[in-house]
Amino acid sequence: MTAATPRAERPHMPGYGTLPPEEGTGLLPWSWAEQQLTAARNLWVVTLFPDGRPQQSAVWGTWHAGGVLFSCASTSAKARNIARDPRVSVSTEDANDPIVVSGTAAELSGTEDLTAAVAALNAKYPGSYRVPEQGPSGFYLVTPGRAYGLRHDDFAGSPTRWTF
């Protein structure tokens, strides 16, 4: 499964001198964002504590099945936060060519989904993952609602917001 092609537009960035969408690099294709998410070694995941404070953690993850896939201990603050409030943000570690995805996280279940998730993560991080035997899986897929990205070599002419 792949995500539907999102609508791309220039984000409103007052004071940054951004160019109209048809100037500079222009709007970036979503395929570029998928490549960045697939290639990134580390991702940052932001969840919300019960009092609304952000909780940020570095994770291993990848673009998979139309969303951002990552895992964490099912007893971690991330997992507890997601169970209570599935709204999350995920960003690549590369501040030069960043991608930031905001959406909802869902814990994966079912042998087929978990087997595919483990295969995707092991393709990137060989031998690091296995399908859990029972209980919470600790594997999450973030379905994007909105995403942002830009290229450092065209800061004014590349910022793109994608809406799904």
- The dominant shape is globular
**How large is the radius of gyration?**
16 Å
What structural class do you assign from the helix and strand content?
A: alpha+beta
Number of separate helices: 3
Mean pLDDT: 95
* Uncertain residue segments: none
What distance separates the N and C termini? 15 Å
**Helical content, roughly?**
10-25%
Share of residues in strands: 25-35%
Largest sheet: 9 strands, antiparallel
Number of strands: 9
Secondary-structure element sequence?
Answer: EHEEEEHEEHEE
Please provide a written account of the structure.
- It is built from three helices and nine strands, in the order E-H-E-E-E-E-H-E-E-H-E-E.
- It has 164 residues and is an alpha+beta fold.
- Strands 1, 2, 3, 4, 5, 6, 7, 8 and 9 form a nine-stranded antiparallel beta sheet that branches.
- The longest helix has 14 residues, at 111-124.
- The radius of gyration is 16 Å and the shape is globular.
- The model has no long low-confidence stretch (mean pLDDT 95).
Topology of helices and strands:
Elements: E1 7-9, H1 30-39, E2 43-48, E3 54-59, E4 61-64, E5 67-71, H2 77-84, E6 87-92, E7 99-107, H3 111-124, E8 139-149, E9 160-163
Antiparallel strand pairs: 1-9, 2-3, 2-6, 4-5, 5-8, 6-7, 7-8, 8-9
How would you summarize what this structure contains?
The chain has 164 residues and is α+β, with helices and mostly antiparallel strands. The chain is built from 3 helices and 9 strands.
Which labels suit this protein?
single chain; 20% helix; alpha+beta; 164 residues
